[in-house]
Design goal:
- The complex is a heterodimer.
- Chain A has helices spanning about 55-65, 95-105, 120-130, 135-150, 165-180, 195-210, 225-230, 245-250, 255-265, and strands at about 20-30, 30-40, 45-50, 70-75, 80, 85, 90-95, 105-110, 185-190, 215-220, 230-235, 240-245.
- Chain A has a single domain, classed as P-loop containing nucleotide triphosphate hydrolases (Rossmann fold, 3-Layer(aba) Sandwich).
- By secondary structure, chain A is of the alpha/beta class.
- By secondary structure, chain B is mainly α.
- A two-stranded antiparallel sheet of chain B has the order 1-2.
- Chain B is flat and about 90 Å long.
- Chain B: Keywords: Amino-acid transport, Cell membrane, Membrane, Transmembrane, Transmembrane helix, Transport.
Chain lengths: ~270, ~325
Amino acid sequence: MTDRERVPDPTASAHQPLLSARKVRKSFGGVEVLKGISLDVAAGQVMCLLGPSGSGKSTFLRCINHLERIDGGRISVDGELVGYAARHGRIFEMNRREVAKQRRGIGMVFQRFNLFPHMTALENITAAPIGVRGLPKPAARDRGRELLDRVGLADLAQSYPAQLSGGQQQRVAIARALAMDPQLLLFDEPTSALDPELVGDVLDVMRALAADGMTMVVVTHEIGFARGAADEVVFMDAGIVVESGPPARVLDNPQNPRTQAFLDSVI
Amino acid sequence: MPNLPLARPGPDAPPIDDPDPRNRRADDIDAVPLRHPWRWVIAVVLLLVFAGVAVSLWQNDNVNHPTISEFIFDRRILDGVVLTLVLTIVSMAVSTVLAVLLAVMRLSNNPVMNALSWLYIWAFRGTPLLIQIVVWGYLGLLYAQITLGVPFTDFSLFSMDTNTLIPAFTAGLLALTLNQAAYSAEIVRAGMLSVDEGQYEAAYSVGMSPTFTLFKVVLPQAMRVIIPPMGNETISMLKNTSLLSVIAVLELYTVATQISSQNLRQVELLVVVSCWYLFLTSMLSIPQYYLERHYGRGNARSLPPTPLARVWKILRPVPRPTTNRADAP
């Protein structure tokens, strides 16, 4: 692991984006789900991915932190190729431990929360900082409480996930992702599994994160959130980027008929 | 809606079927509780049957009761009990570690590990335990010497007479452990498969390595599914130790047969042995409660009661309206 070097992405320019995807392709059993996705996210930006279900948004998101291995193209985060390392002048596919190390810088929030049910809210947050990073327990707990406070759940540190509402669970999940101090946060439909009245709390936390300058890629169906918080909106359909740009243009004045049709059906 | 005066229980109202009249409100129905006469009939019939069997056993002239009380705390029997317990605990502990290893191998993407684990389970689960015990016990007939060295060369690190290296106790322990590992591996595998795929993804997304994920995220959750059948296996193991009598390991059953071959009190000694097995299996279920409670933490369903709580429940059969709902606040 010590001789692992960052693979400088040759396509990255001097003014490089934090996340850069070039012609990313991915197939599942002969079905091409991603047909060459290219996009850039600059540090501090919020990008919302919109599109009908099956358009490949979630798959693309999972490729960014190598939960799915891409079949073609390249993804780099902070100028470092995802899933590949250079040793002795050659590029090697990373083993699982190296991938795990790389993922520390990329947080992810899931549709179904995926909290660890046998741990309290606080333990969910501190497990990785203590076990993966070797942070001393008291420091990790202090930081965990601070993060819980930040997502508005300071008094629920000792609750188990089953004792929390969906909205509370998702906010704990956001705090868990933040605990590793990621430079990039991925959200996979974070409010789709929530009761309507709980969506607002989660979106508020996400807006606060965006305002704090967190770089975020958000797969969502919340058009209102995309309009208010996103710097760029990307509309995907059938594995390609159909249209992208600032929310005012893509959401309020879409050029592509597929985008128009989707927005009409959602709003 | 028919205009029955049904009380609608508010959030703080007691349930409508609360048998305690003090908890009843003025507008609740004052009804005669449902009676269960057949429960009484069946209970009486069963009690009569049990009493009949007990009396017939007690009055059976072929059973010499003083012999039972003479041997139940006999020194040799107690030594047998200790050995049986040691065999059970050691073989269960070691086989569980092996089982986790086998289950992880079986679920890994490595085809060699996968095949090896499959082969192991196939061989040890597919042949009778009794035969495995005999093979280990009489390994000296197969290999007079056991040598550790490099295959197909003369180099040897160590060589020893098989019967010295593996006495009957070790052979028995090996047989029970290796056989149990094959069964337990499938239980552990089932437990690991019961853990949601999203748990792995969540663990990986915060940078946990596969090994860390296994021990901190997957196995603790799998334990909830693993422990009840493992309790079963432990009880089976306790009784399967009696099979070691075929290779003359001096556990409880072997000791009893040795005594009865001298005093010809076979039935009495079998009663003695059965009493001990019953006692030991009853004792084994106590740690199971606590393990289940420990690994059930965070689960929405209420935890299983402790043995004390169970006794308490029997003594106080009227349940209070419990509020063990783990609904979201």
